[in-house]
Structures are given as C-alpha cells and as structure tokens.
Amino acid sequence: MTDSPSHDREPTPRRLADHPDSRGAAVVKRVQVQGLTEGAILATVVALLAISARYFPPLALVAPLVCPLPLTVLVIRHGVRIAFLAGFVSVAVGVILAGPLTGLLIASLSIPLGIGMGVAVRRRLSAPMIILVTGLAAILMILANVAGSLVVAGVNPLIVMIEQMRQSQSEAALFYERLGVPHEQIVKATAPYTQGLAVASRELVAMVLLAGFVSAWLSYAFGRRVLHKVGIEMPGLPAMTMWRVPPVLVWVFMGAVVLATGTAVIPPAGLARSVMGMLPPDDVAAIVRPVAFLEPLDRLPSVRTAGETVALNLLALTGTLFSLQGGIVGWMLMAHYNVPRVWRWVLLVLVVTNSGPIVFLLGVADAAFDLRRRWMPAVAA
C-alpha cells in the first residue's frame, strides 16, 4: 500500500506565505521599513530645524526645545535603535549642509534630550523620573563634549564661555563710562555680577547639573504640549505650589557655609605659623581672607581650593533651589492676600532682581518650618 501523493508534494509558495511564522516575519519587516522611513524623514526635520536656527536667529530660542522631539517620537514608536540611526543621519545632514557646528549642536543637544525623554516616556515613568532621566542624559552629553574639546583642542568650552561673559561685561562697563556714568557707580552696580564671574570657573559642577536639568525640564514642558497634538500623552507634574525642597538641604546649605568659612581661614601653604604670629592683624586678615571671590583659580593653594570649590558648588545648587522655593512661597503669600496676578508677577520680578536674598531666605524658612501649610487652604479655596 503506497502513501498518498499529497504527502510527498512540497508545499506551494502560497501555503508557505500563509504559514503563521511567515506572516509574522512579514509584519516585522514591514514595521522595520516603516520605522526606517519615518526615521529618515524625522532626521531630515531635525537637521533642517537646527540649520534654520543658525540662519534665522529668532528660531534659536525655540530650536533647542523643538529639535529633540522628532527623536522622542521615534523612540516611543519604533525603539531606541531607529532613533539613534535617525540621530546620526541628522548629524551628517547638518554637517554637510551647514558645517560641523550645526552637527555638534544636534549631537550635543537633540540626541541626548530626545532619546532620553523618549526612553522614559516609552517605559511609562512618572513626570519627575522623565525629567531625571532626560537630565542625566543631557549631563552625560555635556561632559562628553567638554572631554572631547579638551582632548582634541585642549580648550574647555565652559571656561571659554565664562571668559566671553567677562569680556562682554567689561565692554558694557566701558560703554556706560563713555556715556558719562561715574566709574564708582558702574563698579557698585556690577559688583555682584563681577563676583559671580570670578567664581564661575569653580562652580562648573553646579553649572553642568543645573544646565542639564533645566534643559530637561524645558524639553519636558514644551514636549508634553506638542506630543499631545500627535496622540502621545505624557504624565503631568504636580502643581508648582506643591513643589518642595527636602528639609535636609537646609543642613547641606549650613554645612557648605561652615566649609567655606573654615577653608577661608586656612593660611597659604608653606607659610609658617611663627611668621603669621609676627604679622600685624590687618595683614593676617588679608592673608586668610576668603579669596574665592578675589583671586583666580591657578593662584589658590590646593587645600583651600578643594574646600572652597566644594562649598561653592553646594552653595550654588542649594541657593538656586531655595530661591525657587522662595519665589513659590512669595507667590502663594500674594495669592493669600488676593493680589492680582499681574501685580504678583511685577512684585516677584522686582524682589528677585533687587532683593534676591529675601527670596532665598524665604525659601530656607519654608523648607525648615513649612510656611506654606498655613496658606494652602486659603489658596486652594
């Protein structure tokens, strides 16, 4: 008895195509092609946005917020690999059409922010975690850019930026002096800015951290509104009136003050105590004075430099956070007394620009004593 011929025949092509595994492979292939096509289109969009910002200055204010979004969409829809490929293509297009600076802008800003935020949204993380992941990605890219610049050109771009700001301040002071403004008045008005620039080169850690997380927050706030238009929902942050600095940062701030004070009174290395004892009190005070605001980094002794640098970075970070919290408390206090919204903005800007320490101290007091709890019911009502 022989087997049926139907068992010996090879499956026809139609039967192979109808196999479940074959249909699945075809779907995967179609999705990959769709992802690559969409990636190529969005990569071109990223490059064109970056190029437009270079040749049309008003767009430079919006481009850092818009350029990462196409890559965020690619990560959410097609994964990280497609987004990375699109990022490299956008860098290549930017370099070819507008030069290496545009390509560097895309690589240093659009790729880390876009992919970082896309990964966080794809994993359905909360809004604070989205900002945290995006901020860490931005910080890593900033550090990579600084390291690359140091290795290739031997130049720290952050230091170059600070020097340019110092030069701009000198040119502005000279301009006002030519207009007849007394030199003493110019020096008094620019003293806080001058002191800030004097220590800026030693606050690079704080500058990088703040730049990374501020960029991440702006990208999140702008991206949430834009991505909503294309059907991608992102979780929202709590109301700003609910933002609060952890109370432990009050102790961090106090420790930074103690550290700055302690290192400021350390005598310069190599100066004997017997010599210090022979000097007049004014000379001793001049030697051990806080030099952080007055002398360049390369002239400071190592022990004082390390302690003061750590203290300055901690003071910069905690000062920024407490000032933000103080502004929120001031806003709620004005709402408690039914101050119109327009006047709230006016008063807040005036206080911040003219009496910044008041806002800072208000933030410290709220972190330590929870001042807002007394006003929250009235504001909510």
Give descriptors for this structure.
single chain, 381 residues, mainly alpha
Percentage of residues in DSSP E strands: under 5%
Largest sheet report = none
Low-pLDDT parts are 4-20, 289-302
Tally of alpha and pi helices:
18
What is the share of helical residues? over 70%
How many domains, as an integer?
2
Q: Which oligomeric form is depicted?
A: single chain
From the helix content, strand content and strand pairing, which structural class follows?
A: mainly alpha
* Shape summary: globular
Gyration radius over CA: 29 Å
- Could you report the average pLDDT, rounded to the nearest whole number? 75
Count the E strands. Answer: 0
- Taken in chain order, the helices and strands follow as HHHHHHHHHHHHHHHHHH
Question: What is the terminal separation in angstroms?
Answer: 92 Å
Layout of strands and helices, then pairs:
Elements: H1 5-8, H2 13-17, H3 20-55, H4 63-66, H5 68-78, H6 80-98, H7 100-122, H8 127-152, H9 157-178, H10 183-200, H11 204-229, H12 248-264, H13 273-278, H14 281-287, H15 302-336, H16 341-354, H17 356-369, H18 372-380
Helix pairs in contact: 3-5, 3-6, 3-7, 5-6, 5-7, 6-7, 7-8, 8-11, 9-10, 11-15, 12-15, 15-16, 15-17, 15-18, 16-17
